[in-house]
Amino acid sequence: MKKVLILTDFTQTCYDSVTYGLDFCRYYGLGAEILHVDEGDDYEDDYERRRTEALVSLYRGKMQGGADMTIKKGDFADVMDEITSSGLYMLVILGTHGRHGFQTLTGSAAARIIMLQDLPVIVAQSKRFSPIKLALIPVADKVEQYSAEITKMAQLTSRLDIDVKIVCRRGDESVADIVSHYFGRRIQVALSVDYCKDRTFSLQAIEYGERIGADMFIGFSHEIERPMFAPVLEQLIFNLALIPVMCC
Protein backbone atom coordinates (compact mmCIF):
# COMPACT_ATOMS: atom_id res chain seq x y z
CA MET A 1 0.00 0.00 0.00
CA LYS A 2 1.32 3.45 -0.89
CA LYS A 3 1.96 5.93 1.91
CA VAL A 4 1.46 9.64 2.46
CA LEU A 5 4.54 11.86 2.62
CA ILE A 6 4.20 14.61 5.25
CA LEU A 7 6.78 17.41 5.21
CA THR A 8 8.08 19.29 8.24
CA ASP A 9 10.67 21.96 8.94
CA PHE A 10 10.29 21.53 12.73
CA THR A 11 8.25 24.67 13.35
CA GLN A 12 4.94 25.15 15.14
CA THR A 13 3.22 25.61 11.78
CA CYS A 14 4.51 22.30 10.48
CA TYR A 15 3.72 20.59 13.78
CA ASP A 16 0.10 21.50 13.05
CA SER A 17 0.30 20.18 9.47
CA VAL A 18 1.99 16.97 10.67
CA THR A 19 -0.86 16.51 13.15
CA TYR A 20 -3.34 17.07 10.31
CA GLY A 21 -1.48 14.60 8.12
CA LEU A 22 -1.33 11.90 10.77
CA ASP A 23 -5.04 12.26 11.50
CA PHE A 24 -5.70 12.13 7.75
CA CYS A 25 -3.74 8.88 7.43
CA ARG A 26 -5.29 7.38 10.54
CA TYR A 27 -8.81 8.09 9.31
CA TYR A 28 -8.21 6.68 5.82
CA GLY A 29 -6.12 3.71 6.97
CA LEU A 30 -2.93 4.90 5.26
CA GLY A 31 0.71 4.78 6.26
CA ALA A 32 2.60 8.02 6.91
CA GLU A 33 6.21 9.04 6.36
CA ILE A 34 7.23 12.33 7.99
CA LEU A 35 10.17 13.91 6.20
CA HIS A 36 12.56 16.67 7.27
CA VAL A 37 15.31 17.77 4.89
CA ASP A 38 18.42 19.14 6.58
CA GLU A 39 19.99 21.59 4.15
CA GLY A 40 22.82 22.44 6.56
CA ASP A 41 21.62 25.94 7.40
CA ASP A 42 22.52 25.50 11.09
CA TYR A 43 18.98 26.25 12.19
CA GLU A 44 16.81 23.65 13.76
CA ASP A 45 14.46 24.05 16.69
CA ASP A 46 15.40 21.11 18.90
CA TYR A 47 12.24 21.50 20.98
CA GLU A 48 10.01 21.29 17.90
CA ARG A 49 11.99 18.34 16.56
CA ARG A 50 11.54 16.42 19.80
CA ARG A 51 7.87 17.38 19.92
CA THR A 52 7.37 16.05 16.39
CA GLU A 53 9.21 12.82 17.20
CA ALA A 54 6.99 12.32 20.25
CA LEU A 55 3.88 12.97 18.16
CA VAL A 56 4.89 10.39 15.57
CA SER A 57 5.62 7.85 18.32
CA LEU A 58 2.20 8.51 19.84
CA TYR A 59 0.38 7.90 16.55
CA ARG A 60 2.49 4.99 15.32
CA GLY A 61 0.72 2.30 17.31
CA LYS A 62 -2.73 3.70 16.54
CA MET A 63 -2.46 3.69 12.76
CA GLN A 64 -3.28 0.83 10.45
CA GLY A 65 -0.51 1.80 8.03
CA GLY A 66 2.06 2.87 10.61
CA ALA A 67 4.03 6.11 10.88
CA ASP A 68 7.75 6.81 10.60
CA MET A 69 9.98 9.87 10.51
CA THR A 70 13.01 10.38 8.27
CA ILE A 71 15.65 13.12 8.31
CA LYS A 72 17.70 13.45 5.13
CA LYS A 73 20.59 15.76 4.36
CA GLY A 74 20.88 17.51 1.02
CA ASP A 75 19.20 19.97 -1.27
CA PHE A 76 15.48 20.08 -0.56
CA ALA A 77 14.37 19.93 -4.20
CA ASP A 78 16.77 17.09 -5.02
CA VAL A 79 15.64 15.04 -2.03
CA MET A 80 12.00 15.58 -2.95
CA ASP A 81 12.59 14.55 -6.55
CA GLU A 82 14.29 11.35 -5.41
CA ILE A 83 11.68 10.41 -2.84
CA THR A 84 8.53 11.24 -4.76
CA SER A 85 9.77 9.44 -7.88
CA SER A 86 10.20 6.22 -5.89
CA GLY A 87 6.59 5.18 -6.44
CA LEU A 88 6.05 4.62 -2.70
CA TYR A 89 3.75 7.57 -2.06
CA MET A 90 0.24 8.54 -3.15
CA LEU A 91 0.28 12.19 -2.10
CA VAL A 92 2.20 14.87 -0.20
CA ILE A 93 0.91 16.93 2.74
CA LEU A 94 2.61 20.16 3.78
CA GLY A 95 1.86 23.27 5.84
CA THR A 96 2.07 26.98 5.13
CA HIS A 97 3.63 29.81 7.13
CA GLY A 98 1.21 32.26 5.55
CA ARG A 99 1.00 34.22 2.32
CA HIS A 100 4.38 35.93 2.72
CA GLY A 101 6.04 32.74 3.87
CA PHE A 102 4.84 30.55 1.05
CA GLN A 103 8.07 30.64 -0.90
CA THR A 104 10.02 29.55 2.21
CA LEU A 105 7.48 26.91 3.21
CA THR A 106 9.39 23.78 4.30
CA GLY A 107 12.36 25.09 2.35
CA SER A 108 12.78 27.43 -0.60
CA ALA A 109 11.34 24.97 -3.12
CA ALA A 110 7.73 24.81 -1.89
CA ALA A 111 6.17 26.15 -5.07
CA ARG A 112 8.28 23.68 -7.05
CA ILE A 113 6.84 20.83 -4.98
CA ILE A 114 3.34 21.72 -6.06
CA MET A 115 4.24 22.52 -9.65
CA LEU A 116 6.73 19.80 -10.55
CA GLN A 117 5.75 16.72 -8.55
CA ASP A 118 3.50 14.17 -10.20
CA LEU A 119 1.84 13.53 -6.85
CA PRO A 120 -1.17 15.48 -5.59
CA VAL A 121 -0.18 17.92 -2.82
CA ILE A 122 -2.45 18.89 0.07
CA VAL A 123 -1.65 22.26 1.66
CA ALA A 124 -3.05 22.30 5.19
CA GLN A 125 -3.21 25.46 7.27
CA SER A 126 -3.42 25.36 11.07
CA LYS A 127 -6.74 23.56 11.30
CA ARG A 128 -7.48 20.16 12.77
CA PHE A 129 -8.36 17.36 10.39
CA SER A 130 -11.98 16.53 9.68
CA PRO A 131 -13.19 13.81 7.28
CA ILE A 132 -13.33 15.06 3.70
CA LYS A 133 -16.85 14.47 2.46
CA LEU A 134 -17.21 17.26 -0.08
CA ALA A 135 -14.58 18.94 -2.28
CA LEU A 136 -15.11 21.99 -4.46
CA ILE A 137 -13.18 22.59 -7.70
CA PRO A 138 -13.17 26.20 -8.96
CA VAL A 139 -12.60 26.13 -12.73
CA ALA A 140 -11.59 29.51 -14.15
CA ASP A 141 -10.30 28.35 -17.55
CA LYS A 142 -10.94 25.83 -20.26
CA VAL A 143 -9.80 22.46 -18.99
CA GLU A 144 -9.40 20.31 -22.11
CA GLN A 145 -5.59 20.45 -21.94
CA TYR A 146 -5.44 19.42 -18.29
CA SER A 147 -6.69 15.85 -18.55
CA ALA A 148 -3.74 14.48 -16.52
CA GLU A 149 -4.47 16.78 -13.58
CA ILE A 150 -8.20 16.03 -13.67
CA THR A 151 -7.48 12.30 -13.82
CA LYS A 152 -5.38 12.59 -10.64
CA MET A 153 -8.23 14.47 -8.96
CA ALA A 154 -10.64 11.74 -10.02
CA GLN A 155 -8.46 8.88 -8.82
CA LEU A 156 -7.77 10.32 -5.39
CA THR A 157 -11.30 11.57 -4.67
CA SER A 158 -12.69 8.20 -5.74
CA ARG A 159 -10.23 6.31 -3.53
CA LEU A 160 -11.11 8.50 -0.53
CA ASP A 161 -14.87 8.47 -1.33
CA ILE A 162 -15.11 12.26 -1.67
CA ASP A 163 -18.08 13.93 -3.36
CA VAL A 164 -17.02 16.61 -5.84
CA LYS A 165 -18.69 19.76 -7.14
CA ILE A 166 -17.51 22.36 -9.65
CA VAL A 167 -17.89 26.12 -9.52
CA CYS A 168 -17.19 27.93 -12.79
CA ARG A 169 -17.70 31.25 -14.54
CA ARG A 170 -21.20 31.74 -15.89
CA GLY A 171 -21.35 30.52 -19.46
CA ASP A 172 -18.71 27.84 -18.88
CA GLU A 173 -21.05 25.17 -17.52
CA SER A 174 -19.92 22.85 -20.32
CA VAL A 175 -16.71 22.21 -18.33
CA ALA A 176 -18.78 19.86 -16.16
CA ASP A 177 -19.16 17.52 -19.13
CA ILE A 178 -15.41 17.50 -19.74
CA VAL A 179 -14.53 16.97 -16.07
CA SER A 180 -17.23 14.31 -15.72
CA HIS A 181 -15.68 12.43 -18.64
CA TYR A 182 -12.33 12.15 -16.87
CA PHE A 183 -13.91 11.45 -13.49
CA GLY A 184 -16.02 8.68 -14.93
CA ARG A 185 -19.03 10.02 -13.06
CA ARG A 186 -21.31 13.02 -13.36
CA ILE A 187 -19.87 16.07 -11.60
CA GLN A 188 -22.36 18.68 -10.49
CA VAL A 189 -21.98 22.38 -11.28
CA ALA A 190 -22.48 23.79 -7.81
CA LEU A 191 -22.61 27.44 -8.85
CA SER A 192 -21.84 29.56 -11.89
CA VAL A 193 -20.67 33.07 -11.05
CA ASP A 194 -20.65 36.21 -13.17
CA TYR A 195 -17.48 38.18 -13.77
CA CYS A 196 -17.20 40.98 -11.25
CA LYS A 197 -14.21 43.30 -11.14
CA ASP A 198 -14.79 44.00 -7.44
CA ARG A 199 -15.19 40.37 -6.40
CA THR A 200 -12.73 37.91 -7.91
CA PHE A 201 -13.90 34.54 -9.12
CA SER A 202 -11.75 32.73 -6.58
CA LEU A 203 -13.10 34.74 -3.64
CA GLN A 204 -16.67 34.05 -4.74
CA ALA A 205 -15.81 30.36 -5.02
CA ILE A 206 -14.26 30.35 -1.53
CA GLU A 207 -17.30 32.06 -0.03
CA TYR A 208 -19.57 29.54 -1.72
CA GLY A 209 -17.43 26.67 -0.47
CA GLU A 210 -17.76 27.97 3.08
CA ARG A 211 -21.54 28.26 2.73
CA ILE A 212 -22.02 24.69 1.53
CA GLY A 213 -19.55 23.28 4.07
CA ALA A 214 -16.84 22.15 1.65
CA ASP A 215 -14.13 20.19 3.44
CA MET A 216 -11.51 20.78 0.76
CA PHE A 217 -10.78 22.90 -2.30
CA ILE A 218 -9.05 21.35 -5.30
CA GLY A 219 -6.88 23.53 -7.53
CA PHE A 220 -4.71 23.16 -10.62
CA SER A 221 -0.96 23.06 -9.98
CA HIS A 222 -0.11 24.45 -13.41
CA GLU A 223 -1.35 27.87 -12.30
CA ILE A 224 1.84 28.41 -10.28
CA GLU A 225 3.70 28.91 -13.56
CA ARG A 226 1.75 32.07 -14.24
CA PRO A 227 2.91 35.59 -13.29
CA MET A 228 2.25 36.64 -9.69
CA PHE A 229 1.61 33.01 -8.74
CA ALA A 230 -1.82 32.20 -10.05
CA PRO A 231 -4.48 34.38 -8.39
CA VAL A 232 -7.01 31.53 -8.19
CA LEU A 233 -4.74 28.91 -6.63
CA GLU A 234 -2.98 31.40 -4.36
CA GLN A 235 -6.26 32.71 -2.96
CA LEU A 236 -7.51 29.16 -2.48
CA ILE A 237 -4.41 28.18 -0.51
CA PHE A 238 -4.67 31.19 1.79
CA ASN A 239 -8.44 31.13 2.32
CA LEU A 240 -9.36 32.64 5.68
CA ALA A 241 -11.58 29.69 6.59
CA LEU A 242 -8.38 27.55 6.65
CA ILE A 243 -9.96 24.92 4.41
CA PRO A 244 -7.18 22.62 3.10
CA VAL A 245 -6.39 22.70 -0.59
CA MET A 246 -5.39 19.78 -2.78
CA CYS A 247 -3.25 20.77 -5.77
CA CYS A 248 -3.08 18.43 -8.74
Produce the secondary structure layout.
Elements: E1 3-7, H1 12-28, E2 31-38, H2 46-60, E3 67-73, H3 76-84, E4 89-95, H4 110-116, E5 121-124, E6 134-139, H5 147-159, E7 163-169, H6 175-183, E8 188-193, H7 201-212, E9 216-219, H8 231-237, E10 245-247
Parallel strand pairs: 1-2, 1-4, 2-3, 4-5, 6-7, 6-9, 7-8, 9-10
Antiparallel strand pairs: 5-10
Helix pairs in contact: 1-2, 7-8
Structure commentary:
Helix content is 36%, strand content 23%. The chain is an alpha/beta fold and 248 residues long. α1 packs parallel to α2 (46-60) and α7 packs parallel to α8 (231-237). The longest helix has 17 residues, at 12-28. The protein folds into two domains: 3-124, 3-Layer(aba) Sandwich (Rossmann fold), CATH 3.40.50; 134-247, HUPs (Rossmann fold). It has helices at residues 12-28, 46-60, 76-84, 110-116, 147-159, 175-183, 201-212, 231-237; strands spanning 3-7, 31-38, 67-73, 89-95, 121-124, 134-139, 163-169, 188-193, 216-219, 245-247.
What's the quick description here?
The chain is of the alpha/beta class. The protein is 36% helix and 23% strand. It has two domains: 3-124, 3-Layer(aba) Sandwich (Rossmann fold); 134-247, HUPs (Rossmann fold, 3-Layer(aba) Sandwich).
Q: What characteristics describe this protein?
A:
Rossmann fold, single chain, alpha/beta, 10-stranded mixed beta sheet, elongated, 248 residues
Helix content: 25-40%
User: How many strands appear in the DSSP assignment?
Assistant: 10
The helix count comes to 8
Biggest pleated sheet: 10 strands, mixed
What proportion of the residues form beta strands (DSSP E)? 15-25%
Please, what is the CATH homologous superfamily of the largest domain? HUPs
Side by side, the strands of the main sheet go 3-2-1-4-5-10-9-6-7-8
Q: Overall pLDDT, averaged?
A: 82
One letter per element, helices H and strands E, the order comes to EHEHEHEHEEHEHEHEHE
> What would you report as the Rg, rounded to the nearest angstrom?
18 Å
The parts where pLDDT drops under 50 for at least 5 residues are 100-109
Could you give the distance between the termini?
A: 21 Å
Tell me which CATH architecture of the largest domain applies here: 3-Layer(aba) Sandwich
Please tell me what the overall shape is. Answer: elongated
CATH topology assignment of the largest domain: Rossmann fold
* The top level CATH class name of the largest domain: Alpha Beta
How many domains, as an integer? Answer: 2
